[in-house]
Specification:
The protein has 132 residues and is mainly α. It is 74% helix and 0% strand. The chain contains four helices and no strands. Helix 1 packs antiparallel against helix 2 and helix 2 packs across helix 4.
Amino acid sequence: MEGLLKSILAGTFSGVFTGGLAVPAIGVTAAIAMPAGWSVTLWDALIVFGLGAFLPALIIHSSALLITRANALNALASFCVAVIATTALTSGLTYAGNALAAFMVGAIAATLLTSTLWSNNSFKPNPLRGSA
């Protein structure tokens, strides 16, 4: 039960923090002038939502998972609920579909990244080796 609570708290914290930080970050990246000749859809996907929503979700959620060593799937589920709730409270959900999609893709990428890196506990200290 302690592991489940830790996972829920890690996901909730990272979701609330991501939702609170990324809304202004999306505004900042949306203010970057698009070069002439670029597709608006490509610019929105790479710059506005890539840098403004995907990257904060990836960094914050993977940091929370790595620090707490939480169960990745439980933390992902609570992240999704928390970021949707935070976005609904801060800016409304009427036009937040692209941002929520970028949040979710970033959190899924963070979950896959940390599960791959820590799948065999290769970064844990070896007690047989002693302290160096």
